[in-house]
Amino acid sequence: MILRNRIRTPDGTVIESWHRHDYVTHEDANGKTYMVDGGHDYLRRSAHGDEEDLSLVADTDDHGFCRQHFLWGTYGKDGKQPFRRVALADMSTEHIKAVLRTQTHLSFEVRRLFENELLYRERDW
Questions:
Q1: I want to staple 106 with a disulfide (CB 3.0 to 4.6 A). Which of 5, 18, 59, 111 is the partner?
Q2: How many whole angstroms separate alpha carbon 16 and alpha carbon 55?
């Protein structure tokens, strides 16, 4: 599973794609344009060869690693807080259940990751 889809350009800028078709670009100090795309679904990026790949890919069976590195965007419980990203491990159980109940667009892999987190908490691994 793709946990983080990101690169660092030669000028040090990190760009990250968070979801499918999230095409993110950056014009670097060297004049080249860099991009990442695909979020958690696929890895697509520019091919200049001087960028650093910072992506994290893990087997979903390594749940301990996945839960620490998979980030979810949230506006808080009431939807009025500033946007922030939180690790799956730091989300409340109620929040995870609400995501599974309301976010029908989740890919199979992301849905499975959330479901595995609930099992992880029940079993207290």
A1: 111
A2: 9
The residue written with tokens 């992301």 in the block is 110
Read off the amino acid at residue 59. Answer: D
- Residue ranges per structural domain of the chain: 2-57, 63-123
37-51 pLDDT, tens digit per residue, is 999 999 999 889 999
- Buried b or exposed e, range 72-95, using 16+ CB within 10 angstroms: bebeeeeeeeeeeeeebeebeeeb
Task: List the one residue out of 63, 56, 25, 64 whose CA is nearest residue 40.
Answer: 56
CA 120 – CA 109 distance, rounded (Å): 16
